[in-house]
Amino acid sequence: MSRVITRIERVEPALIQSLAEAGVATVHEAQGRSGLLHPRLRPIFSGVRIAGSAVTVSVPPGDNWMMHVAIEQLGEGDILVVAPTSDCTDGYFGDLLATSAQARGCRGLVIDAGVRDVRELTAMGFPVWSRAVHAQGTVKETLGSVNVPLVCGGALVNAGDVVIADDDGVCIVPRADAARVAAEAQAREAREADKRERLARGELGLDIYAMRERLAGKGLRYE
Questions:
Q1: Residue 150: which of 112, 188, 187, 185 has the closest Cα?
Q2: pLDDT 10s digits, 5-57
Q3: Distance separating alpha carbons of residues 161 and 174, to the nearest angstrom
Q4: What gap in Å lies between CA 134 and CA 182, rounded to an integer?
Q5: Over the range 50-61, which residues count as b (16 or more CB within 10 Å of their CB) and which as e?
Q6: pTM over 0.85
């Protein structure tokens, strides 16, 4: 059954901003090394870090009709998360859809398929994490669904979950876990800041992390 869920719960903006500031690697560690999307999803240009609430789009292979439907459901700060129902790398999204999405407050796109118009998207500053860059066009014939649970890049994504994306990849934080993960990410950043200062002073990770005894126990010998 094809459907559009028009009302979704979103995480409060302050928590989303906190997760954005922490970044993908820290958030991934803070929630027990979970939530990462497959590394095949890469940014079309580097140097961007975003976070926002997921508006999910389940699309048929080679058909981007539901992308237009999904844009109507976007709110300020949302991120489109798109997955085809079977393997496809066609270019579902380009500069015209990006223009429409930006006008609705969309922060970016995560898609387990292809995009095109990369030069234009880069000039617009519209960030995309995609499986492929592919000029192959799509049709508008078959229905899909918006704001339903889907698997994107090997990870389960529900509408309203927090999406964090940067040069390291994409991580999903379930909406119900956002406050806990944000707090742990902040604590982890504080611990890492202390270690960074010690490393900069010349201390070794071998000593900071108390590795020597364990290494010896594994059989490492210095000669």
A1: 112
A2: 999 999 999 999 999 999 999 999 999 999 999 999 999 999 999 999 999 99
A3: 5
A4: 36
A5: bbbbbbbbbbbe
A6: yes
